[in-house]
Give the backbone structure.
Amino acid sequence: MTDLDSFLASFDGEPGYLDWASFGPLSPAVRAEAQADTELLGSGRRSSIELVDDHVRAARELIATLIGTDAAHVVLQPSTSYGLMQAIYGLAGGLLLGRSEFPSLTVAATRAAEALGTIELQWLDPADGFITPEVVREGLTDDTRAVAVSLVDFRTGFRADLGAIREVIGDRLLIVDAIQAFGTVDVDYTAADVVCGNGYKWLRAGRGTGFAWYGDRALERIAPVLSGYRGMDDSVATDGVPPPAASARAFTVSGIDGLAAARLSTALHEIVDVGVAAIENELGARTGDVMYFADRYEVPVLTPREPERRGGIVTLAPAPQDAAPLAASLANHGLTVTVRSGLVRVAPHVGTGANTLRLFGDALAAFSATRVW
């Protein structure tokens, strides 16, 4: 078992890292497991290979535990994008989504519409980019068959209200990109029909650790268009081509990387042991610390103030003439953030320590001292 204090202590990187929304440095447990399993795969023994491959089962079961479902509804994917493409390519009818969503959603939707001609794209363009239940309600039409949304927006950190969106859309499908939330935001994922994520950010599991959950309604209505031979119950059939599996396995193209699954299952074990609610509470305190310094030095914040309306991202929105000086000050103080389109995205994690926050405060103080009003 991992308690919260031990979990916090496992963040062993150098001070200054505030870019968890881009990449999560691998945890010590994940690094150790990856090294051990690499040695096992070097042995050539069948028992060793099977031991590593068993992480696929473990990872699916742990994801099911966090969602509150069973492992038959979960399938591992190379990335979030793969899971979203599997879901979107199998749709028919109107698909409602925000035009400023991360490209994993918008590109998959556009490519599917262009290639198959079965999807009618219905775009949402709220002024602040926040996909609220009210915005969704206004965008719905009689032709809308599915809604796709990021649980936590990659630009602003805004957290969508899945339960309220479910009430608004009724029996329509709800497809969720959860990469910026899974393991750090405690929500009822079963309000959705499809949940896709990846372990390489907040879970600290590295690339290749994607996954997707498909609820019963999704399995009934989404055609497994991109289903490969591993998506069949008998994956080595040679006397014909069996139909796709009746479970989430249908949304599989080829074999799963056992090493990636090992990293993912190890990371998920830590999350399950600590509890998502405890992690969310701690992360809310860290984002609150970032907002405190931003307010102290009068740097505008785009992210909602209420903890229940944000994830682990705090986006600073300096005046146009201040964006470059602020970014330079952060870099000069050894801080890693994401700067895009004049916005500064700051993404701490629960293990972000006092030294990093002190550097952040110093960087904002230095910026403020040279700012021309």
Remarks:
- The first helix runs from residue 4 to 9.
- Strands lie at 74-77, 93-98, 119-124, 144-150, 173-177, 194-198, 210-214, 314-316, 338-340, 343-346.
- The chain has a mean pLDDT of 96.
